[in-house]
Amino acid sequence: MKKVYLLSPLSEREIASQFKSLAVHPEGIDIMDKKAVFYTFKIKSLSSPAANILKQEALAAGAELATAWSVIKDPDTITDALLMGTYRQLEIISDKIMSQQFGLSAVAGELRTAITNLFRRHPVLKYKDSSLGFMNGPKLMGILNVTPDSFSDGGKFFSTEAAVEHGLKLCEDGADILDIGGESTKPGNESISPEEEKRRVIPVIKQLRDKIKIPISIDTMKADVAAGALENGADIVNDVSAMGFDRAMPGVVKKYRAGVILMHMKGTPGTMQINPEYNDVIGEILSYLEQRADYAVQAGIDKEHIALDPGIGFGKTTEHNLLILKDIKAFAALGFPVLAGASRKSFIGKLTGTDMRERLPGSLASALWAASQGVDIIRVHDIKETKQALLMINHIMDA
Fold first, then answer.
1. Residue 158: pLDDT above 80?
2. CATH assignment of 124-398?
3. Of these residues, 88, 345, 359, 387, which one is catalytic?
């Protein structure tokens, strides 16, 4: 019988499962797990002296740094770099460069924060008197649009009765959160009044609150709508403007001790898809979300009440959306639960040549990829199908 065989690259969760199957002593696990999780970080715009110092420290720790080859001979080179190593190696490197010049102390601070947030990552999203945990995989957020014009299902659930019926079905199919929106944010959409938005969503929230136990999220940028929804049974505010549209929003979230999801959007729903451009799509979104989370905390919102959403489809081209999905693990390094919402979006249609009714396979592929990268909340239209797919992935990971 073969005595040596290769395991697939292991996540922290899978490594813990392997240790458990081997009956490793708990003290041994504490020593070894820092050596078992491997990370690759991209570092932007290092000077040649900084890159050379970081290379030396990486090699000394048993890690590696990849840079432009010209760093060796040209002291004026500015280079991006890939730093590759285990948690323990990166911990040693960050300690070594903490007091170095050439901007390396800032690199050390960001690196230490990122690996600390990622390692043994057990985020939680608190809301009112309860919370959601994500240790056993992502939670599914079911989409309920109470609108006549949403891009996917506008008009299908516009009446209160139809919306409540569909909300109950999403719960029956296995939704962990119900996200109710009364205003479409599809590209080019015109805003509606807070009064009209409340007229659409509050009766639905009130009826569903009496019938379901899972948390309800209100998808709105308007503080008045959020307050009305929270007063009538909603638990979480899903704000696509990251509380940038309405200055009163932080006060409402704080008052009701609600959870809040802060999303990145370039521009407004009316302008976001007019030639969106980025120099560094991941870096720019990371910086934006970090700033908005800091703003929320400074406004008095507890850190554990905040989740982040990079905003797939909101001011992004198809290539931008693919890059966000590919590198979505980067957002977990900020230390908050991460939401991904790619369900039925137009970039799936562009890549697969399908219309809205035929995008389930592409939506499932996006959801499964997001789950494999440690995303905490996946926002979808098709709860039942996504739930089954995630169940299979969990069984495979735990085998």
1. no
2. 3.20.20.20
3. 345
In percent, the amount of the chain with pLDDT more than 90 equals 78
CATH of the domain spanning 12-118, picked from 1.20.272, 3.30.1370, 3.40.190, 3.40.50: 3.30.1370
| Active-site residue, 345 included | yes
Residue 221 · residue 246 · CB < 8 Å: yes
Beta strands in the chain (DSSP E): 38-47, 64-66, 78-86, 124-127, 130-133, 139-145, 177-181, 216-219, 236-239, 259-263, 306-309, 339-340, 377-380
Residue 82 CA to residue 195 CA, distance in Å, equals: 51
Per-residue model confidence (pLDDT) at position 153? 58
Catalytic residue among 200, 222, 316, 379: 379
Chain-centroid distance of CA 222 in Å reads: 22
Query: Which of 218, 248, 214 lies closest to 230 in space, CA to CA?
Result: 218
How many angstroms separate the CA atoms of 287 and 290, rounded? 5
Tokens 């991904």 found at? 340
